[in-house]
Design goal:
The protein is 12% helix and 60% strand. It is mainly beta. It has two domains: 37 residues; 204 residues, Porin (Beta Barrel). It has an eight-stranded antiparallel beta barrel with strand order 1-2-3-4-5-9-10-13. A hairpin with a 5-residue loop joins strand 4 and strand 5. The radius of gyration is 32 Å and the shape is elongated.
């Protein structure tokens, strides 16, 4: 072997060794960076928002928003310095409202003595508030800007929302009732103790409401500020839009005659009731919409 060949082989071996060393260094650096970026984090915070059971309106029916509050616990996994995946669980006290100016209907029922009759009623300025505990499970992807102190973020995701212990409470400025007895071919507009007459400023008793689970898409925008190393404070605004129908038409009358206590009328939620003359639900579709502010504290695990 000549000296020239010997030095050429030696240089090649040194080059391979240096290449392997550099490759190993970059792999180790990559692993360290990946470990730093792919970090598990936790968050705890609250939200204040307005919720609405937005409905396809029929006639004079209207849906309105009410203030609601909630507590959120979250967990996230960083993919790199800008992208992360988030999930968790939230519990909220949620309120919604529906109302209309005038409504009338009939219900076939029986009185205290078992005599069948047609219960007729008319409502003026009816308003109903629904109240529930809402259990939410979100999953989302987040993009945030770079920065050591202040960052802007965008979060896009979906959530499953479960209504727990839902109730409704209705009121009206006027309720006018009467009873038509086909056997006598007569309509009674009195006496009041029998549940017939005009009742002003009536407050109905609270009733259970059956609301289907809601599946929503949501968008959140905000800013995060590092308060101490690896601890961040998030402040954001969000909107959620429900994809599915929440109403459950069980065929009941909005107002029912109470055989045992005729002056204590039974008021069913518009979410579950139907017009007795047609059998149709009050709304073709009702979905949950929310908009508000979220504030939470985020830290590494």
């Amino acid at each position: 072997m000549t000296n020239q060949s010997y030095f050429k082989i030696k240089k090649m071996n040194l080059f391979k060794l240096n290449s392997l060393s550099l490759t190993a260094i970059f792999i180790l650096l990559g692993l360290q960076i990946g470990q730093a970026q792919q970090e598990w984090r936790a968050a705890v915070g609250g939200q204040f928002y307005f919720a609405e059971l937005a409905a396809s309106e029929q006639g004079t029916f209207r849906s309105g928003s009410e203030p609601s509050v909630g507590l959120n616990l979250g967990v996230s996994r960083g993919l790199n310095d800008n992208w992360s995946i988030h999930s968790g669980i939230g519990v909220s006290y949620i309120q919604t409202r529906n109302s209309f100016d005038n409504y009338s209907d009939v219900e076939n029922t029986t009185d205290l003595e078992g005599e069948p009759f047609e219960f007729r009623y008319a409502l003026t300025n009816y308003s109903e508030k629904q109240q529930s505990m809402l259990l939410s499970i979100p999953i989302s992807v987040q993009y945030e800007s770079s920065g050591s102190q202040t960052r802007f973020y965008t979060k896009l995701g979906a959530s499953a929302n479960f209504f727990l212990g839902s109730t409704s409470t209705g009121s009206a400025s006027d309720l006018t009732t009467s009873g038509f007895y086909e056997r006598f071919n007569g309509e009674l507009t009195a006496p009041r103790f029998a549940g017939f007459g005009q009742f002003n400023d009536i407050e109905f008793s609270q009733q259970d409401a059956d609301i289907s689970n809601s599946y929503n898409l949501f968008l959140e925008l905000g800013i995060k500020e590092q308060i101490v190393p690896n601890h961040w404070l998030y402040v954001g605004v969000f909107v959620e839009y429900g994809l599915n129908d929440l109403s459950n038409n069980n065929g009941s009358s909005l107002v029912q005659y109470n055989q045992n206590q005729p002056m204590d009328f039974i008021n069913n939620s518009v979410i579950n009731a139907a017009n007795q003359a047609t059998g149709n639900a009050f709304f073709d579709k009702m979905n949950l919409t929310m908009a508000g502010v979220r504030l939470y504290y985020d830290f590494g695990l």
